[in-house]
Fold:
Amino acid sequence: MLRKLSVLMWGMAAAVLGGCHASRLASASGEIKNPVMHKNTEESLVPPYVLPDVLLSRTGKKIDNAFDWVHIRRPELLELYKKEMYGYLPPRPATTEYETLSVKEDALNNTAIRKEIKLTFRMNGKKHSFVMLLYIPKNLSAPAPVFVGLNFRGNHTVTPEKDVIMTGKDVDGNFVEKRRSKHINRFHIEETIKRGFASATVSYHDIYPDNKDENSWRKSVYNLFFAGESNEEFHAHASALSAWAWGMSRMLDCLESEKMIDCSNAFVHGLSRLGKAALWAGANDTRFKLVISNESGCCGAALARRDFGETVEIITHYFPHWFVSSFKKYARNEDKLPFDQHCLAALIAPRYLAIGSAQEDLHADPYGEFLSGAHAGAVYKLFGIDTYTVDTPRIVGSHITGAVSYHIRSGVHDQNLDDWMRYWDIAAKIK
Ligand code: GTR
Structure:
């Protein structure tokens, strides 16, 4: 693809965005801290591109009905995503145990029951555990629909309650007390409860530590299965994003054993890298009825061929462990990808998909996120469902509803009350 566009110091932007991991990860590796990489944020400079046809199978068969989508094209795309980009999810461990560490009957001013449940997986003489924080609304006449999502910095960061167990070890292997209650606005658990939804969360570091050190997978759940592999062998077939997606499915398994949770109404959500993980979880696990991509950006909802914001080159430089190692061959070579991210969005069909963008979040390419949703519409149509199109007006502050919904709010990269208002609305309509 022809690229004659503006260049900027990506490292600075990466530090501002998301969990501010990028600069720390890069410097920890001893590599050049802020390499100059191509990044365009001018709409007028986006070169033309052609998307692969989501309805054209690799054998050249045009998919024109839902049956062929489900039996031919969908499995083909899922396999391509595993092989080329996200790797293969960990298998199911031989044994899984759930241990309730605490129950608080009068949580959040007596509006919720709070549980902390330790999930332990055993395989090949090894074990891996993580702690799930769960809030269930009190006094409901029926089991509660549930939001399932990972958190960046520990369960204790997303709740106002000060007695929640610290989770989410940082890169030095420590829990961080000073982050307690710092990310309440990313979960809005109190309001979620008021609206009759349960909320379950785990720190993503406890499933696979988010560290580009190529040994970090040995502290992840994958170590139960592949401990004998070299780093090179491992990274050829597996990734952190697949571990995180897997983790959300295991959370759902556990929730299925909770009487007060309605797992036929499970809504997976995530911000940014965790939005990528939510999309990938929703693609793999059809138990999730609603999949929420909150500013998931590059390798999430944003189109890869559209040269705007973060690129495959940038993301694989800073976060190689999120993908299989061979994915970096698509850096500055996005046209060669056998799919684009509208195909990932389409893997959610005919279930509900909510895409959220923020106006100032240029790094995540809001328009590219919108377009993925629009182009996934071809697959929803096979199921008789009309969704928004590329011509639907995209207005800041408004909400495009439907099986594929979209909103763009003002402001920067985050998952905040404005976003949650959209997600609660959809959840209330579909539950
Ligand atoms: C950035 C990364 C994005 C996004 C973000 C986050 O540094 O480049 O793709 O995932 O992190 O997760 O907050």
Observations:
- The chain has one domain: 95-430.
- The chain is about 30% helix and 20% strand.
